[in-house]
Amino acid sequence: MEYYQKFIKNEKLRRWMVLAFLVVMLYFLRSILPLTLLTFVFSYLAYRFVSFVERKIKLPGKISGFILYGVILFLAYLGITEYIPVLVNQVTHLINAVNKFYQSNNHGGSTLMDSIYTLFKEYNLADKIQSSLGTLVNYLTSFGKGLLIVLFAFLMSFFFTIDRKETNKFSKLFLKSDFAWFFEDTYYLVCKFFTGFGVVLETQFIIAVVNTLLTIVALSFMGFPELLSLGVMIFLLSLIPVAGVLISCVPLSIIGYSIGGIKDVILVLLIIALIHALESYVLNPHLMAHKAKLPMFYTFVILFLGEHFFGVWGLIVGIPIFNFALDLLGVKEIPIKNIKK
């Protein structure tokens, strides 16, 4: 019992042990990490919006929460009903155009088609394309699971947003239990990490807004239809670092091809590449460095290593993990209001 009391009084050792326990738990629960992170992302953004509305226009949190999620559902419905039919139509036109091109060059005497056939034979491109199609089918299969995770995280964040005061009140009961020290340390560590996580989310949200506005302006000059639904799609994909930009290239290129042919496809890809370069080399490092209070050199290195080791999620959690480690090591403290030290 004496050792137990000494352990509880040793705050630094105690928190390192709690952190080790949480890391082990996360390892065993790693299959639900995407759901956990997405729930936090949705809840954090909704919480900031509801808090802002409460401060500015004194609208109750539950009402503003219902309004926010209602608008999101309406925009999702608009995107599905307005955008998907357009995309299906454009894909049909693209398939017909490719079929006509193939038939017009399938009568022999075409140097271009002879070169394509030779390339297929030499490099066995048919098998490679078939393998790629199999990979695509696997991605589409996992897409359904990913969509289910997104919907469940969206639902959980909705319940948290409209019931956040009652949830916080109930959660504080753990801080008065017999193992209050464990829950206090858990609360402390989680707040430290998710404060840095929130900074990254705010930055990515700003980048998504800028990216969407620039892309929509460029597409309007090119005569793209359904700009509102395209804007919703671009904004949602822009919230996903790197991968979102690549995914958006596919439907935009298809629509561009149906409007102006291969020239518009090249123009769309150039526009996306320029905006992505602006995002990656100017906006992202500058905003991340400013928000996280890190030098741009460190920000570049962390983003690169995070993407290398953890993929897309590394771009999101890299900065929070680095700041969290600096705080634990006593190098740089993460300031948090209303937290026990």
UniProtKB/TrEMBL annotation:
It is found in: Membrane. InterPro entries: AI-2E-like. It comes from the Bacteria. This is AI-2E family transporter. It is a multi-pass membrane protein. It comes from Lactococcus muris. Its main location: membrane. Belongs to the autoinducer-2 exporter (AI-2E) (TC 2.A.86) family. The chain crosses the membrane at residues 16-47, 59-80, 139-160, 181-199, 205-224, 236-259, 265-284, 296-322. Keywords: Membrane, Transmembrane, Transmembrane helix.
